[in-house]
## 1
Amino acid sequence: AQSVAQPEDQVNVAEGNPLTVKCTYSVSGNPYLFWYVQYPNRGLQFLLKYITGDNLVKGSYGFEAEFNKSQTSFHLKKPSALVSDSALYFCAVRDQERGRDDKIIFGKGTRLHILP
Amino acid sequence: GAGVSQTPSNKVTEKGKYVELRCDPISGHTALYWYRQSLGQGPEFLIYFQGTGAADDSGLPNDRFFAVRPEGSVSTLKIQRTERGDSAVYLCASSSRGGSRNTEAFFGQGTRLTVV
């Protein structure tokens, strides 16, 4: 079965330090991977995606993510965290199962706290 | 419209009642998704439309849940005989070029359903 795992419920980082939010996935074919962010009382906002090509993809607000096929991971990163980055982050993968390949499956989310 | 619009933003209903939740996707988007998000969890897939037809309804939890998209634009999620366990935030998303795997989905603000 296709799945996404976010092993950390919460990540705390001091402002100005680099941050990493972890994501691993399992699909039957080639993965299409996404990161979304959710601020309090707001909808999910798209950050970035990996489809093919360069393993390092860049997205909104200075975030980037690195696709690692051998480790089946797609960790979200940012070189220097801001307090305003504090939010809930979701990793997602497009299901590759035959006949249902347009369904997007989400992880349970990781709450990121940036400490001033 | 500029984004995905969901109405109402909040809905409180009594156990056993019928409710309808509306989603107005981004103009021109052919794909539409419904998800359900409970507190502290990631979005749970319910159903996906391409145009007017449901391409994948495997996430609907039981036959009390039904969704339609009669003209390929606005969609309505219908829940019969509501139960307290149905309480959650119901999210709608749309994407362009339905069926294209590399297209991200854009989300509405959600409808918070509370069954009392």
## 2
Amino acid sequence: QQPVQSPQAVILREGEDAVINCSSSKALYSVHWYRQKHGEAPVFLMILLKGGEQKGHDKISASFNEKKQQSSLYLTASQLSYSGTYFCGTEDSGGYQKVTFGTGTKLQVIP
Amino acid sequence: DAMVIQNPRYQVTQFGKPVTLSCSQTLNHNVMYWYQQKSSQAPKLLFHYYDKDFNNEADTPDNFQSRRPNTSFCFLDIRSPGLGDAAMYLCATSRTGGRNTEAFFGQGTRLTVV
């Protein structure tokens, strides 16, 4: 079953912040975040393992709440280069891993 | 430096004519995936290999088959492509265990069915 992301789409002005949420119905081993630009393959941003960790990379950070089976991606002081579609990818905790992508969030940053 | 390579980048095939897409990797990852991505949608997992173990998603049509002759190569065969199979096909690899299990993607093959 595909993880559900919210919002589906968001438009930001440069410098504004955004939060993208990912929710799964399954117990999770890890959550990945990817960004995909139009016509290109998804690019890995970060991975969070169970244990409720948070991670940051420049002005993009994420959290993972394994009890709620949810993850959030935080984009601060957005830049034009942040535009794209963001996908969470989840690995569930049973069996061997496979990455299932969420429904996606289209983010557009405008000047 | 390319680590996951898909060939060809663009493929045009006739309705009903078998087509094969290929993927190779230099990462020595034990897991390989095939995803189908249609316009404005999330990548949809078709199959994945864990080493030589093949795992088919329940809703993957029988028209789609896959082969992995060795660690480095993986193929997607579409036996009788229909118009609805036109999409971007993404190959990805990852390794199991530890903290570095992210998926590395190839550039994709865009399939057009005429």
